[in-house]
Amino acid sequence: MMEQSNSNSKPILINKYLPHNFLAEKMILSCLLVNSEAIEITLKTLSIDMFYFKNHQEIYKAIIFMYKNKIPIDILTLITFLQDNGLLQEIGGVKVLIELLSQIPNLVYLEDYLSLIKDKYIRRSLIKLGYETINSSYITSIPLESMLNDLENKLFNLTNEIKTQKLSSSAELVNDIFFELKTKSLNPKLSGATSGFYDLDSLTQGFQKSDLIIIAGRPSMGKTALSLNIASNLIKSSKLPVLFFSLEMSKEQIMYRLLSMETNINQIRLKSGKLYKNDWIKLNKMIKIISKFPLFIDDTFNLSIQDIRSKIKTILFEQNKLGLVIIDYIQLMQNSKLKIENRVQELSQITRSLKTIAREFDIPIIGLSQLSRNVENRVDKKPILSDLRESGSIEQDADLVLMLYRNSSDNQLRSDSQTSQLIELIIAKQRNGPTGTVKLKFNKEQTKFYNQDQDN
Questions:
Q1: Is residue 131 domain-shared with residue 57, that is, in the same domain?
Q2: DSSP string over 245-280
Q3: Segment 360-388 mean pLDDT
Q4: pTM, to two decimals
Q5: Parallel, antiparallel, or unpaired for β 412-415 and 418-430?
Q6: SS3 for 3?
Q7: Do 318 and 230 share a structural domain?
């Protein structure tokens, strides 16, 4: 509740009991009156409601309006603008504005002033959120899940407010890169998470943290199988947890495919239980190994971005680390926040959100994707990057796009009575690396991928 002050020189409080910093707000407004560059920086950082005092909010609102309408900003033009709009007395009169110039602030510390204001604003927001949570908890007609999701979203938004992007000089960046290169030269290794396929890893240097990786292909090309192979290879090499979201198949189906892949037992025989004595030995041994895998599978139907973020946080809380997230597949996801009839726009929002999550948690995210049906109508059915254009903004948002392709007319290879197929893994886009093609062998009966020159 607003409390009007009797003296024009005193600030007008919104609530005197909430966290605030009067001097920091005064310093920022002073900066805006004496330096035009400070206005642009401040506008990108602070919203009007981040100021605590009502009169400071009105002054800042006036400065924003003047700046956007290209009205010169100084003490005289600001007084004139406020007076012409009947706001001068509301902010405490001319004396309040004159006091802003009583001490010229040091612009070097502008970023520190901004941080102080944001800190107090977030604390006030947390207090407000606490009261809202208490009040809504008494309303039993609100579903508990809905209330918790709303609370988590609001906390996430506050977390993003804290993460201000600090400007870095070229000297700082070069020094960091030099140190990184020196470390790599002493201990050569992949900079990202390994896929387990050395030809692919040599071109990508592994899946990089904060990257959104897309594995695309038409149905039955082996997208799920490849992602499971990558998950297994990463766990074996690094012991890092992998979170696998399966929107198409159940948890049990995923585990059958994983067991078939790791034991080299035909999927049909494994599912039917028609196993030989040697199969039982291999199966028993592999179950003991896989039971220790930090692999977490979620088969929630209609998975949303909020679900993904929540479950990533759960894994990080329980495991303290996370190596990779896999989503099978993107077109089956829903965005609960949007009421959009256009599915392409919804998919665009989903892929942008996935990229944001990858950056937020500093982990690689692999999203499987279907390709446009236009591929089937071409003479050359080898997929190209434009085949993703009907799937939202995947083409733009992804850091790495891998496309699976096999030519059914000439890729049937036989080895030890098992049918293998030659798969081309096309690197259609790599934001910070080369494109090209990697050839793998795929045993569909065991859903297992191999390097091209690796024996089955």
A1: yes
A2: EESSS-HHHHHHHHHHHHHT--HHHHHHT---HHHH
A3: 81
A4: 0.66
A5: antiparallel
A6: strand
A7: yes
